Automatic annotation (TrEMBL):
This is PucR family transcriptional regulator. It comes from Nocardia terrae. Residues 5-121 form the Purine catabolism PurC-like domain. Residues 432-489 form the PucR C-terminal helix-turn-helix domain. Pfam families: HTH_30, PucR. Coiled coil: none annotated.
Length: 496
């Protein structure tokens, strides 16, 4: 069930007071009624909260801010407020819900909360019991369902399933094999792995949860395992909805950073549970020609093993951006280790490139992100068989800086600077390019170049003069030599 389906309760008089479209896509896992000023200890993630506002008094109007903040922090997905006590929904409550991104609905005094609760639970249970003959005993189903709706740790849920259903040890793993949760040690150690998809079909090679065991699954256990995977799909759907919501907020944060909108920056940082003083490290992943979701899911898999909090969003075609509180050196180590596994999921075309920028606060994060994107440009130019991770800290010399040039720009520069030499060598076999390279490698020394090429020094002089005539650049002029060196570096990289 999604929050937007609360709109179907209009026959009970339920009406939206503030309901932005993206917040209506949140997944509902339960419903509860609370009428205390501080509801934090009574709530579980994913719930719709009903309140009669008995705790609110007009002379203490500001108290709604604390109530809404506590509800949102506990994972509440929507608030339904009754008009029975005060006759109307206070404007202060509407504003607080808007500030904290919590959808708000009103219900007239003629509608009982019991009617609303029954309708919501009817919808939740109809979603759960879609199969005609459940393989799980109803008592176990109820126990596991309660664990999911209360956001119990998935390790505990799997352990309960194994114990109560007599299943072999289980793991919940990502597409790359990263263990998300396990019923206990040794869940996938044996040589007969069984793997079941959890939730909707994966939207990319990096997406999805998989329920797996290393033991042989009997015919009697298979339908039980299938239904357990279906049950876990509720947790996966909630997880994906949360990631999509975070992605929207992350995109808003990046836009606010670009616009230097301090108010929106502060609000979105708070919404993303990032501290105002947190330093964030930007990471850019590119998978050319792939749907945007591929890069987004790849970033999630790369960052899942890093310390600290992270958020991700799509940026442009085939590119995704991650922001993490992990420091650059820790991030680089983890990403480099994980990339080998991630790339195996792109068997046909492993052209995945990663750029990592420096850690920065919000005042300099836009610059740090630009550096991460240029590092990704450089990583894209590296051979597909190499580890295509580049950090902004590597950009400390001309050779590294040139690595990030787009192919078309690189080729145009080479053609303009040393194209005449390449053409002359192709026609005459004069080895001018080789001579120029040796001359630059030997710091412009005529005698060392002569010795290195086993040629008379006069021959070296003649060839260099010919190079200068063809290129219009003097090799002893610093600017001319720099142009020639840059063009040669790009030429050699393209030939590698």
């Amino acid at each position: 069930m999604l929050v937007e389906q609360v709109l179907e309760l209009s026959d009970l008089g339920v009406a939206p007071m503030w309901a932005p479209r993206r917040a209506l896509r949140r997944t509902v896992t339960g419903v509860t009624t609370v009428d205390v000023g501080n509801p934090a200890s009574y709530l579980s993630p994913g719930e719709i909260v009903l309140t009669g506002l008995a705790w609110w008094q007009p002379q203490h109007a500001e108290s709604v801010g604390g109530f809404v903040a506590a509800a949102r922090a506990a994972g509440t997905v929507a608030l339904i407020a009754g008009e029975g006590v005060h006759g109307r929904i206070p404007e202060e409550l509407v504003e607080a819900c808007r500030r904290h991104g919590l959808p708000l609905f009103s219900v007239p005094c003629g509608t009982t909360f019991r009617a609303i609760v029954d309708r919501i639970y009817l919808r939740l249970w109809s979603d759960m019991r879609a199969s005609d003959s459940p393989a799980l005993p109803s008592t176990v189903m109820d126990e596991l369902w309660e664990a999911i709706t209360s956001a119990a740790p998935l390790d505990e849920l799997l352990a309960t399933a194994v114990e109560r259903l007599g299943l072999p040890p289980l793991e919940l793993a990502s597409a790359s094999g990263r263990v998300i949760a396990a019923s206990g040690p040794g869940a996938a150690d044996a040589t007969h792995p069984t793997r079941l998809g959890v939730g909707p079909a994966p939207r990319s090679p990096f997406d999805g949860w998989f329920l797996r065991t290393g033991r042989v699954v009997s015919r009697a256990q298979q339908p039980v395992l299938d239904e357990l995977a279906t049950l876990l799909s509720r947790a996966f759907t909630t997880h994906r909805a949360l990631l999509d919501e975070q992605a929207t907020a992350t995109a808003e944060l990046l836009a606010a950073l670009e616009a230097e909108d301090a108010q929106t920056i502060s609000a979105t940082m708070h919404e993303l549970d990032l501290g105002a003083d947190d330093k964030l490290t930007p990471l850019v992943v590119r998978i050319p020609g792939a749907p945007d979701t591929w890069a987004v899911d790849a970033v999630h898999e790369l960052l899942a093993g890093t310390p600290g909090r992270f958020v991700v969003c799509a940026n442009r075609s085939g590119e995704a951006i991650g922001l993490t509180t992990a420091p650059t050196h820790r991030l680089t180590d983890t990403v480099t280790q994980r990339l080998a596994t991630i790339r195996t999921l792109l068997a046909e075309d492993p052209a995945l490139a990663v750029g990592i920028g420096p850690s920065a606060d919000t005042s300099t994060l836009t610059t740090a992100l630009a550096r991460a994107q240029y590092a990704a440009d450089a990583a894209e130019q590296r051979p597909p068989t190499s580890t295509r991770v580049c950090t902004a800290s590597e950009m400390t010399n001309l050779s590294a800086l040139l690595e990030g040039l787009p192919t078309a720009v690189s080729q145009a520069f080479q053609t303009a600077v040393i194209g005449p030499i390449v053409d002359y060598d192709a026609e005459k076999g004069a080895q001018l390019l080789e001579t120029l390279q040796s001359f630059l490698n030997n710091d412009g020394s005529w005698t060392r170049t002569s010795a290195a090429m086993h040629l008379h020094v006069n021959t070296i002089h003649y060839r260099i003069e010919r190079i200068e005539a063809l290129t219009g650049r003097r090799v002893l002029d610093p600017q001319g030599r720099l142009d020639l060196y840059a063009a040669l570096t790009l030429h050699q990289r393209g030939a590698a």
